[in-house]
């Protein structure tokens, strides 16, 4: 299935390796942002409980 899908994408003229690289970088950035804001939220909720 993956081979057929890759071939279909390549037929449209898209560089599949570059596409995968961009998607991985984007996913890493999203996870980093999610982690950062999750930590900030935990710190914020902890300080609200103390105060």
Task: Tell me about this structure.
With 51 residues, this protein is an all-alpha fold. It has one domain. It is 88% helix and 0% strand. The protein is built from two helices and no strands. The model has no long low-confidence stretch (mean pLDDT 91).
Secondary-structure element sequence? HH
The total domain count is 1
Average predicted confidence as pLDDT: 91
Annotation field: number of helices: 2
Overall helicity: over 70%
What separation lies between the terminal Cα atoms?
Answer: 56 Å
Biggest sheet details = none
Brief synopsis:
This protein has one domain. The protein is built from 2 helices and no strands.
Quickly list its features.
single chain, 51 residues, mainly alpha, rod-shaped
List the helices and strands and how they pair.
Elements: H1 2-11, H2 16-50
């Amino acid at each position: 299935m993956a081979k057929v899908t890759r071939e279909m994408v390549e037929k449209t003229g898209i560089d599949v390796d570059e596409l995968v690289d961009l998607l991985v970088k984007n996913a890493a950035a999203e996870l980093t942002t999610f982690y950062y804001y999750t930590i900030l939220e935990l710190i914020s909720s902890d300080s609200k409980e103390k105060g």
